[in-house]
């Protein structure tokens, strides 16, 4: 399709005069809108303003510029079927559209107010792009600055023509852009809503931030797509590129560390915590977390919610780690960590995860659920046994519960002195998870507490816990066998608390 006439209407004018100059050299007529017309004219490029061509001015403070039959007719016309009608109406074909959209996403990210955000919802630009993309058999649509050079090469190669294959490629990109743009607008409106019900329609879209080395396994391709208004919140300051599994594990680490305001450390391995602790400072928290399961921690991911200093960096360097995440790293500590060239060092300023929904792919679609933001205070725990606990044991119960909700079900967490000393994860029976957790904890079980993400279906887990010295248990309750379970706890002098809330994590 030979290009004879182009419409240029761009918000971001980067490199536009260079492209327009190329088009005029090819004897291509240019139409342009307000500010684009001024920029091209100031650069000495011959162009006709759209309002002169349509004989209708821009109105409503620029809200309406290109929504006119002579513009959309020129873009949408079938050069063969509509030729006579076009001549009778005085509508000229537009063979090339070059446009980009108002920066809605960036305006939201900048903290602008509602009025400013609404003004950045592009109407005319989206309508132009959709029209040109629909009519790809006759019209080329350039919706990204990154495609300027490719357009030039295509035109030079084909004597000012574009191939059908190329136009279809451009249309595919154009519809992806408008879908992404509209999904951002929908997401913003959704974020403003005070309605806690799941929306009737759920728009899921993202832009590719980076290619990953590989997926879950080396033979699987992978990339990271972001659907956030702000830029990706992780800043890598050292180490090789992140892998698919790294990002999955980082998410788990951030979810757990966000539970704590006091100095805390968590070690993740295969999307499960193998160590977690709080302490008086970051070094103490990490040393306690590492003591939970030093063997499993090898090759893990560590997240801390305090700055990494020299002593902590030296301790981190004692074993092989894939990733270290912290809100900051001082200069001395960074030099120590940089001794390991492959260790990824990630800065993450805010550990408060404000994710509203969780999404999971399934056959034929995807599942959406509200995020599990459940928390519990000591006064909200319901004691169901005769035995009582100390304040320290209650603190450990709450600590264990916070960790337990992030462990793959069936989940058991044994804790003592603000440290997870035994974790049983992902087993098909609860007693198996208990057995793994007590084995991991060993002799440290004596005087420790235990958290379960769901109710105990039978008293066997209570009896097994008692054998190893567990003194208190926190669990949701709700089993048909609750009374048998409570009886077993009383007989074994174990205090038991119900939360009334289950925390499965599949």
UniProtKB/TrEMBL annotation:
Family membership: Belongs to the PurH family.
Natural source organism: Glossina austeni
Catalytic reaction annotation: IMP + H2O = 5-formamido-1-(5-phospho-D-ribosyl)imidazole-4-carboxamide; (6R)-10-formyltetrahydrofolate + 5-amino-1-(5-phospho-beta-D-ribosyl)imidazole-4-carboxamide = 5-formamido-1-(5-phospho-D-ribosyl)imidazole-4-carboxamide + (6S)-5,6,7,8-tetrahydrofolate; 10-formyldihydrofolate + 5-amino-1-(5-phospho-beta-D-ribosyl)imidazole-4-carboxamide = 5-formamido-1-(5-phospho-D-ribosyl)imidazole-4-carboxamide + 7,8-dihydrofolate
Record flagged with keyword Calcium: no
GO biological process: 'de novo' IMP biosynthetic process
Taxonomy, superkingdom: Eukaryota
SMART domains on file: AICARFT_IMPCHas, MGS
Its EC number(s): 2.1.2.3, 3.5.4.10
Assembly behavior: Homodimer. Associates with internalized INSR complexes on Golgi/endosomal membranes. Interacts with INSR; ATIC together with PRKAA2/AMPK2 and HACD3/PTPLAD1 is proposed to be part of a signaling network regulating INSR autophosphorylation and endocytosis.
UniProt keyword annotations, A-Z: Hydrolase, Multifunctional enzyme, Purine biosynthesis, Transferase
UniProt GO molecular function: IMP cyclohydrolase activity; phosphoribosylaminoimidazolecarboxamide formyltransferase activity
Biological pathway: Purine metabolism; IMP biosynthesis via de novo pathway; 5-formamido-1-(5-phospho-D-ribosyl)imidazole-4-carboxamide from 5-amino-1-(5-phospho-D-ribosyl)imidazole-4-carboxamide (10-formyl THF route): step 1/1; Purine metabolism; IMP biosynthesis via de novo pathway; IMP from 5-formamido-1-(5-phospho-D-ribosyl)imidazole-4-carboxamide: step 1/1
HAMAP family according to UniProt: PurH
GO CC term (a single one): cytosol
Residue ranges constituting the MGS-like domain according to the UniProt record: 1-143
Protein name: Bifunctional purine biosynthesis protein ATIC
